[in-house]
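Homework help board

Subject: predicted structure for assignment chain

Our instructor gave us this sequence and asked us to write out the predicted structure in token form, then describe one feature. I got the tokens but I'm not sure how to describe them. Can anyone check?
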Amino acid sequence: MKGCTSKGGAQASSFCACTLTEIQNTHTIQELNQLGLQMQQTGELPESFQDIVISCISRLQ
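My token output:
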């Protein structure tokens, strides 16, 4: 969380907490390992993570 919240204040903390919670609620450890490898290979954020980011941004507005 420190890397996510280091430069954004309270709103960043809320966003980071939201994304972390949603990722943990929707992916198993095995899926997260696979997605991590995929991100390393492609340099792109998986679509499921993109959906979570958009959802959390919407909640904070």
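Reply (TA_rk): Your tokens look well-formed. For the description, you could write something like this. The helical segments are 2-5, 9-26, 29-42, 47-60. That's the kind of observation they're looking for.
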